[in-house]
Protein 1
Amino acid sequence: MTEAYAIVNQKGGVGKTTTAINLAAGAARAGQRVLLVDVDPQGNATSGLGVERGKLDRCMYDLLTDDEWKETTDDPLGDVVVPTSVEGLWLVPATIELAGAELSLAAAIARETKLQQVLEPGRGRYDLIIIDTAPSLGLLTINSLAAADAVIIPIQCEYYALEGLSQLLRVIKLVQGQINQHLRIAGVVLTMFDGRTNLAREVAEEVVAHFPGRVYKSVIPRNVRLAEAPSHGLPVVAYDRSSTGARAYQSLYEEVFGDAQA
Amino acid sequence: MTEAYAIVNQKGGVGKTTTAINLAAGAARAGQRVLLVDVDPQGNATSGLGVERGKLDRCMYDLLTDDEWKETTDDPLGDVVVPTSVEGLWLVPATIELAGAELSLAAAIARETKLQQVLEPGRGRYDLIIIDTAPSLGLLTINSLAAADAVIIPIQCEYYALEGLSQLLRVIKLVQGQINQHLRIAGVVLTMFDGRTNLAREVAEEVVAHFPGRVYKSVIPRNVRLAEAPSHGLPVVAYDRSSTGARAYQSLYEEVFGDAQA
Ligand SMILES: Nc1ncnc2c1ncn2[C@@H]1O[C@H](COP(=O)(O)OP(=O)(O)OP(=O)(O)O)[C@@H](O)[C@H]1O
Ligand SMILES: Nc1ncnc2c1ncn2[C@@H]1O[C@H](COP(=O)(O)OP(=O)(O)OP(=O)(O)O)[C@@H](O)[C@H]1O
Ligand SMILES: [Mg+2]
Ligand SMILES: [Mg+2]
């Protein structure tokens, strides 16, 4: 039974892409068939896995907006998906064209469930789908929440990170009520935690108080290897498996999907 | 002669708000009358200066979309502006309502120059206007580029930071060609620089090669005091004047506006 997880937080630079890539890679290395879906026009999940955007025929933008092309093929999702450097991990790539999708979709019928429709065929082919989103709560992120079964919220251990949480929860509730009844919050992951600073500990305490029982025990430390890995087109577990960043994401993978292994 | 600067980069978490607040505070402490304009629905510039969003009557959203209210007052900008904890620094605050502005404006006439119109009266009252933007290249950021005389681009010294630059420059060129002919790129500032890592040095070299002669010599180091200051509602120069973060922003202020002092 395929499950789809969306990695969401409208605050910028909190580790959404880093979490999406490294959880997806963890699942692939554990033998699962994983699809990583890049729904951010910046395309960081695409480039972070070394996929050259210039060489792509089709991408996420076409899946969401090019109805003419989709009529000419019986497997649009299959036409767009590309392999990555990690065995068992495939990718729906994004290019900058995706920046135009919000405008193109604004007047479309069922504009909030376009992504859900295009990912439907993937449900039978992959064990796990992970969706990386942009720092926004616009239409593309709404589409991601509509297409997902569960949401993982990365929260950076810094002051501004707490600011947007109530808005994010309000939008999730709206999607649960109006578009996707079974969407659940899988959990919150603390990222870029620097134990040497009081700020990180104070914010972490506030987050735990805000989400009792929903904060993953695996905390992702600030670790330069995590920032270096994408420049090599690799998830951190392939770039430097012994680093604290790789070990933290491995432990997060086991905590989030642990029973899936059973 | 008032000048308006927009702080822009669609990559999330690169230090836009931190740069906007601390440059604005630097100018105010040097005796200038400064207006900080928050055009990000997250409202981090608003909360980072300790302004309580719940207590505001009017905010940026009203200025951009509430034409009825604007007919009832002869100084909408003056009605919205609030003082901050820093003498000489005023703020146009943002609340989460602003998230609805892109949709409300999408069909409006002259939708790209709404902000330019509402800030026009500020040109006589302040020496300097600084605009903080969201991690996006949508309509609100286009409005900010249309309203500004110059753009400052913060770039985090990390791999993904280079990814979006060509797109950002393309959008700036579009705005220069179609909406705001005299918009110029004031410069690029390197942020969160950690001299101990190769990654930061490599990215910094690439940025300098990408923008010859336009990268400010003042580099902002990673410094926890910069991340702590907003939780006290203060710019770093008021929170911990002797910190490396405060000194770096003071030196950046002098480099960007130096001749303005003359
Ligand atoms: N735990 C960590 N330690 C050190 N660096 C990290 C860590 N997690 C992420 N980074 C780096 O911090 C930057 C921001 O992370 P990332 O791009 O994953 O965040 P994001 O939320 O996806 O950003 P955006 O909002 O722009 O989509 C990147 O350069 C990334 O490599
Ligand atoms: N030089 C620095 N050293 C350490 N921390 C910093 C530095 N600059 C910014 N920060 C912290 O990093 C986080 C991101 O910075 P900031 O919010 O200013 O970026 P932004 O580009 O405005 O983000 P967004 O894209 O969400 O608007 C904040 O928690 C901020 O306090
Ligand atoms: Mg990202
Ligand atoms: Mg900001």
Protein 2
Amino acid sequence: MRIIAIANQKGGVGKTTTSVNLASFLAFYGRKTLIVDLDAQANATSGLGLEADLTPNAYNLIMDDDIYVNNIPIETRVKNLWIIPATIDLVGVEVELSNVKDRHFKLREKLGRFKNMFDYCVLDCPPSLGIITVNALCAARWLIVPVQCEYYALEGLSRLLRTVELVRGRYNPGLEILGFLLTMFDSRTKLSNDVANELRRYFGKKCFETVIPRNVKLSEAPSFGLPILLYDAKSQGALSYKNLVLEVIERCERV
Amino acid sequence: MRIIAIANQKGGVGKTTTSVNLASFLAFYGRKTLIVDLDAQANATSGLGLEADLTPNAYNLIMDDDIYVNNIPIETRVKNLWIIPATIDLVGVEVELSNVKDRHFKLREKLGRFKNMFDYCVLDCPPSLGIITVNALCAARWLIVPVQCEYYALEGLSRLLRTVELVRGRYNPGLEILGFLLTMFDSRTKLSNDVANELRRYFGKKCFETVIPRNVKLSEAPSFGLPILLYDAKSQGALSYKNLVLEVIERCERV
Ligand SMILES: Nc1ncnc2c1ncn2[C@@H]1O[C@H](COP(=O)(O)OP(=O)(O)OP(=O)(O)O)[C@@H](O)[C@H]1O
Ligand SMILES: Nc1ncnc2c1ncn2[C@@H]1O[C@H](COP(=O)(O)OP(=O)(O)OP(=O)(O)O)[C@@H](O)[C@H]1O
Ligand SMILES: [Mg+2]
Ligand SMILES: [Mg+2]
């Protein structure tokens, strides 16, 4: 099972939109995929048409030692896609794990139990660099960093990269950045173009070729509980996420 | 000193943009104003042209008992506006305060020491409902809730309001919602109009008359370390935040 974390502590940069649409296109291309919603806001859960606070959920996954793997993932409306939904209880994990031994490896250990059930696992992270995001980085083989084409989003990258280095050095030497993904790109503004040029200058080939444009269909789809491929498969939003998945498959399955 | 918290756990909805521009227009209208950056991302700090991780900072404000008030706020480029900058250390507060008595009132107690120095105090919160945001809600007299004109932003409001009720019931009966502020409004999209109508249906007069349009000047200004009134005072972004401040002054000073 290939585990990909979608993380960036900056809020509103497109983590959930990327998680939901990446996972659903991986499923569309025949990969059995599990998405885990690690954010108490439960946006990936509702974006796929499910209620928040179902049980069992991502809190049970991290915190309960006696979980029985077979009954945790829930089917979604997308063929080949299952979800472990979020719950408000995730808010408490930071403090509840603070004195627990091996607290960084809780998620990694539990996801190991699913390794023969799925081809891919996508982890949607909350907007913070706390224990939940660190757990995701410890469990993941790859990291995708959505970068909104805005100044604040660019500014926050150095902190994220320091955390990645820290995790790689201490807990998960196999963690690699699969790529930086430009999101909400508006070709008409100088700011979008400046941010894109800056990102490519720093990270070169680590930037995905695919750029996700600002596309209102992408922000409409969650209100129907649908990923873009079921909401409007012909939209620019759908085409760009489809191209992204082809790049992701090429990068992950090339080795 | 009138304390206003700017909070919403949804990421990227315009909390920092509202904090920085509200505070600078309050200063522009002659109110001595203090802005406190409570987010480890330190966006309000850099949005006003300062470095992150200066000392003393918001972490010292919350955690150090022997702070000497006079030397904490730092002058900004805006006349009448001071800031208590953020630092990466804020990330640790959630765990460090977890077993401390009266942990909800740390910020309130400390801000009390500044009450004769400023007319207004604006608190920029991180994208979470953890102990720092709860501290801000316990310290504040008023709360402004920025709501991006998107589905996920609307969906998260019920959780925020439950937290506000909890804080009001247990810790701060004087806390009131000053208003809901629609941000990044794009009159061309059905989604923006749907969200605006929905918000007004639920909250009526609690919604500010002023709506902040999506305006690229607002997202360019932080890269120069300037609030909108110093970056482009004639832009739609500047005019809308100016109108907001007039509404805020009217609501706060009417009583
Ligand atoms: N390419 C896009 N075009 C238009 N709207 C988008 C695009 N990507 C995301 N959005 C919208 O922007 C908002 C923020 O995106 P999203 O919620 O995916 O970000 P996030 O990083 O997961 O936020 P959080 O930090 O709160 O978890 C959402 O309302 C979403 O629908
Ligand atoms: N009205 C607007 N028009 C255009 N861009 C805007 C507007 N308001 C905010 N922005 C931009 O949108 C992004 C998100 O705004 P901002 O950082 O203020 O939100 P936030 O809620 O503070 O985010 P976080 O949850 O990360 O703290 C920023 O890059 C900002 O420059
Ligand atoms: Mg999200
Ligand atoms: Mg902010």
Protein 3
Amino acid sequence: MGRIFSVANQKGGVGKTTTAINLAAAMAKAGKRTLLIDLDPQCNATTGLGCEPTNSHGLVTRRPLRESLVATYLSGLTLLPGSRTFHDVEILAKGDQGESGVLREHLSDGIDGFDVVWIDCPPSTGPLTQSALAASSEVLMPIQCEYFAMEGLTQMIGLIRDVMQRGGGRLEFGGIVLTMVDASLELAREVEGEVRDFFGEIVFEAVIPRDVLVCEAPSHGRSVLDYAPQSRGAWAYIELCQEILEMT
Amino acid sequence: MGRIFSVANQKGGVGKTTTAINLAAAMAKAGKRTLLIDLDPQCNATTGLGCEPTNSHGLVTRRPLRESLVATYLSGLTLLPGSRTFHDVEILAKGDQGESGVLREHLSDGIDGFDVVWIDCPPSTGPLTQSALAASSEVLMPIQCEYFAMEGLTQMIGLIRDVMQRGGGRLEFGGIVLTMVDASLELAREVEGEVRDFFGEIVFEAVIPRDVLVCEAPSHGRSVLDYAPQSRGAWAYIELCQEILEMT
Ligand SMILES: Nc1ncnc2c1ncn2[C@@H]1O[C@H](COP(=O)(O)OP(=O)(O)OP(=O)(O)O)[C@@H](O)[C@H]1O
Ligand SMILES: Nc1ncnc2c1ncn2[C@@H]1O[C@H](COP(=O)(O)OP(=O)(O)OP(=O)(O)O)[C@@H](O)[C@H]1O
Ligand SMILES: [Mg+2]
Ligand SMILES: [Mg+2]
């Protein structure tokens, strides 16, 4: 079975969607058959790739998963689009009772033919994120080098440990990604220092710099790797992708 | 009855908590007896003012609300702390069935003696945010001048309209606040232009600039108005506060 990554952090706006899109794109470009699953009712991963959210989420319909998959502009990258209808997403969440029953079943049936799966989670520790974690082999946590981000880390780590201990899944800690790093700011350097001291090896070497081209790419429905291939943001995501692929 | 503001936006990291803390502080300094309610299980508004989250949220305990209120470092600013225990917060949300029963009752009993109440909401359109909206007289929506923020705006406006039409409350649209604006970026100027064209008068004149001092303040448990009173961020929040007070 291929690697299934959840990109998760209850803190808002730390770059979960940006990281999910750009790592999925990087892996597709590296020759992996890649599936990106949009699990967030905001549907940012979907629109950020120039695709349309659906009325009913592929994970709650009765149809086999592959009927809900769509091609993206990038060959090798397939998308399970998000759905804005909250109650759909609540069905998925309730049906799971915090275990990933629905998600894990659907996933295992639907993902033959994919080498790697990326799941973009909403900013919450609720049932959706828990289902994603329980269905995953690894969790990636993007964090910003700011005070509130540090606070939330401990809580997220607690949740991940709970899911691991509940068992039934094969979740391992994938790693912490420092995002939107403005190395000119003392605050950012201090927080990065603290995170590395505290978490050691699970923090990736590659950090994603603050780069307006990364921020502009979704309005063009493209990964930054295609929108601005020579940008610092694009290079950083490629570097991070390689660090992850070498981890196997 | 005093004004009750919800600070809401399902998009993460757009400055809801920063705005709730700094406008509540500005109003307390302007002589208003101010209550800030932390409705987010992340408890950022609580820790950002140097206070402790509670085990059980004041809005779900049987005790009268005022027994759960705590003083902050700032005279005139009182806090109803947040609670990290998700099921507590879920009780509040479920008890409401999407209507603000519990929150609105508790609020109307508990808020005599306050001129203004600020409610910090989590990044979601779920039951917590809906309860807050139904209990409020006005909603303030902070938004960042970036693509995903624009997308989420339409959905939030839809939710606010639903709450208004369900009736029973006295919710009006308070306004849109542009946050973390980096005026040197063309993207920011474009998005600001679009937001003002589209939404007109409901967009506040005052915008909050990107300012690292605003970002550092919570790690000192202070509003930026006390941490860095001469900063551009502090001045902007004071200007916004006055614009809001003149709205009555
Ligand atoms: N490296 C970067 N440089 C500049 N801007 C960035 C960078 N990464 C992300 N952004 C921008 O920051 C904002 C937040 O990023 P994103 O939406 O990916 O975060 P998120 O954690 O998925 O948010 P949410 O919690 O709402 O799901 C977006 O407008 C995005 O384009
Ligand atoms: N004007 C500003 N300049 C610089 N940084 C800012 C500014 N406003 C907020 N920030 C920082 O941006 C981050 C996100 O802000 P904040 O936590 O207030 O957003 P939020 O919408 O409440 O997030 P969430 O969706 O997780 O509740 C925080 O680290 C905060 O300190
Ligand atoms: Mg996202
Ligand atoms: Mg917040």
